[in-house]
Amino acid sequence: MAVLYSSPSRSPRPARQCRAAAFTLVELLVVIAIIGILAAILLPTLARAKSRANGILCVNNVHQLIIAWQLYAHDQRDRLPYNLGGDPDRRTVAPFNKMNWVNGVMDWETTSDNTNTSLLLQSSLGAYCYNNTRVYKCPADRALSDVQRAAGFTDRVRSYSMNAMVGDAGDLTSTGQNLNNPGYRQFFKLPQIPAPANIFVFLDEHPDSINDGYFLVKWPTAEDYYQPEWVDLPASSHNDSSALSFADGHSELHRWHGSTLAPAMPDAANLPRYVPTTEKDDYIWLLQRTSVSSQ
User: Fold this and answer.
1) Quick check: is 12 in a domain?
2) Structural domain span for residue 51
3) Which of 35, 114, 146, 222 ranks highest by number of CB atoms within 10 Å?
4) Cβ neighbours around 162 below 10 Å, total
């Protein structure tokens, strides 16, 4: 007789009430508020850190340029590279000359000089920089005009200029003195610089001020009532500082203040730039490191 086995009965499991985990509106608002507070704390710190890193790279660039400048002078029996320029009114700029330390005139248009790196390599310091065009460009200098952005420019090729009182300036110094600064000594050879640690050679220039590679700090004459004006303006893109290198080979960041500061954008320098009586410290500091009296 067959025995029928029935499977043990299973009691039905109670259905689970599944509830998806979720944040409440209050919790979301708290999280957003915390993120906002952290961003407000961290972003300025990160921006300063990035600016500091760019400043270090910029100092390294002007250091490489000063080494190239010294090597050139040693190869030329202490004669310094040509440093051609224009007049203080910015009506003229340096002409193209392969003997010049650098060539190319920066502007806010779409002229080829703004992007032509071969002009850097064809200049007298090109080979001494091992044909590395990036040493001519500050990593923080991204200033472009609307016209240049529309044309697809990503940046311009040069950020640095040379002290106008250092090197042969061509017609401007044909008499042995600089027509733009007749009361100051023009240095044609390395041994002529009396205190090399106190004479700057390269600095990063404001992108609106830079045109050729000739940076002029003009001593105000009696006719100007001793009222100084920036003819060319230093850059201030590294926490209000710019990089400078000096004739002895050292490089540093120097911080500017007050009217020396201008946004890195077209038409911001507004040259010649009046220096208020209460804000002459920056101008005097750089002037004292430009040259010495010819008397």
Assistant:
1) no
2) 32-287
3) 114
4) 30
| 6: in domain | no
Residue 80 lies in a domain: yes
Distance between CA atoms of 31 and 77, rounded to whole angstroms?
A: 68
Total-model pTM: 0.83
Q: What is the average per-residue pLDDT within 35-51? A: 68
- Find out whether 54 and 242 touch, Cβ atoms under 8 Å: no
**How far separated are the first and last CA of the chain, in Å rounded?**
137
Cα–Cα nearest to 80, from 132, 133, 128: 128
Residues 247 and 253: their CA atoms lie apart, in Å, by: 15
Segment 67-80, tens digit of pLDDT: 999 999 999 999 99
200-221 exposure pattern, b = at least 16 Cβ within 10 A, e = fewer: bbbbbbbbbbbbbbbbbbbbee
The count of domains in the chain is 1
User: Which helix (H) or strand (E) segment is 12 a member of?
Assistant: none
Whether residue 158 is contained in a domain is answered as: yes
Q: What is the mean pLDDT of the chain?
A: 89
